[in-house]
């Protein structure tokens, strides 16, 4: 199993953290992983993306141009990365702020209304974990016990008290993912 993922959105949405948690979780499960962030100098509010590879086999390069899954959190990222999803691959997006929905007919498309649910519940800080949960429902590439370990590894110790809230958000995300198109 090898899963090549791009996660993209605005800085401040937890894009890089989501990728880091996924990579650490894979590493804790003794999988091969790579985590390669990219963001502009403005960071918060600017665009940010991270490519993550989780594999049972050695990873030849962390640079990926085609993705098994794209997790998209804003229109600019959708415009940039939709064409990079491999035919038969998966595109997950939060419709908040998306003005032009994905148009490809050869990929699986899912929505997750993480922004709306996080706002409704007053949990804006775990928005990204809701999205991560939706992804893990579709592609359970790491076990939940390893997600816990990944959260412990990636969050500073002073934030470990927030791990249960993050885990609840991940479980919530698994209930919010909806299929738009299946090929």
What does this protein look like?
With 183 residues, the protein is of the alpha/beta class. Helix content is 36%, strand content 28%. It has 6 helices and 7 strands; from the N terminus they run βαβββαββααααβ. A 7-stranded mixed beta sheet has the order 2-3-1-4-5-6-7, sandwiched between helices. The protein is globular, with a radius of gyration of 15 Å. The model has no long low-confidence stretch (mean pLDDT 93).
How far the N terminus sits from the C terminus, by CA atoms, comes to: 20 Å
User: Percent of residues in beta strands?
Assistant: 25-35%
Specify the structural class. alpha/beta
Radius of gyration: 15 Å
**What helical percentage do the residues reach?**
25-40%
**What is the strand tally?**
7
Largest beta sheet, briefly? 7 strands, mixed
Order of helices and strands: EHEEEHEEHHHHE
General shape: globular
The overall pLDDT, averaged over residues, is 93
Number of helical elements: 6
Which stretches are low in confidence, meaning pLDDT under 50 for 5 or more residues running? none
**For the largest beta sheet, what order do the strands appear in spatially?**
2-3-1-4-5-6-7
């Amino acid at each position: 199993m090898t899963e090549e993922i791009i996660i993209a959105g605005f800085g401040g949405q937890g894009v890089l953290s989501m990728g880091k948690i996924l990579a650490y979780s894979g590493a804790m499960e003794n999988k091969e992983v790579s985590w390669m962030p990219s963001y502009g100098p403005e960071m918060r509010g600017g665009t940010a993306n991270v490519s993550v590879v989780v594999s049972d086999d050695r990873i030849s390069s962390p640079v990926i141009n085609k993705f098994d899954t794209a997790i998209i959190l804003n229109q600019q990222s959708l415009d940039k990365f939709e064409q990079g999803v491999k035919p038969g691959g998966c595109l997950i997006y939060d419709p908040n702020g998306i003005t032009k929905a994905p148009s490809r007919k050869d990929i699986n498309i899912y929505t997750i209304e993480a922004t709306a649910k996080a706002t409704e519940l007053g949990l804006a800080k775990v928005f990204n974990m809701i999205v991560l949960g939706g992804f893990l429902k579709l592609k359970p590439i790491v076990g939940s016990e390893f997600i816990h370990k990944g959260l412990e590894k990636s969050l500073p110790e002073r934030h470990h008290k927030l791990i249960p809230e993050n885990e609840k958000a991940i479980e919530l995300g698994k209930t919010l993912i909806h299929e738009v198109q299946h090929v």
